Amino acid sequence: MLFPLTRFRTFIQASPQPLSRLLSAAGGGLYTLFRMAWFLAKTDPETYSIDNLEREKRTVWDGVTNPQAVRAIREMRPGDHVLIYHSGGVSGIVGVARVAGEPRDDPKNAKSAVVDLEFVRRLDEPVTLAEIKKSGLFADWALVRQGRLSTMRAPEEFIAWLRDRGAKVES
Description:
Largest sheet: 7 strands, mixed
Helix content: 25-40%
Strand content: 25-35%
CATH topology of the largest domain: ph1033 like fold
Shape: globular
Radius of gyration: 16 Å
């Protein structure tokens, strides 16, 4: 799926490089450069769960303070998908949300950022961290390497792996 023109404008405006250099550096061409991105956001289900998101339909994702996780939030663009991960009990991916607005500074913390997320769907069956680790395919991904990181990009290979397992991650 290609993403909206607003992402292209944001990308070009944010870059100090000339457009021709950006496009040649894309490697996979415009399709690769402008695909929707996938992220993963962790939440303690006792604090805020997929149940809450489904009931409310939309929320402001906040409370992230780790600089690497804040950077991931700032990279999100409207239309991007976010895997919702419960970090308490049996840790795993339980649902999918969509980025519903541009990220912005957190009014409560100048070093943080917030973004609006809207509920897309629950997964039929959670995909546990144990299953992800057992696959042996994602040992270099932050979810496996950095257990306390709350928000991160999800690699395309992981999304393909989820689809291959039958997880319905699309809206």
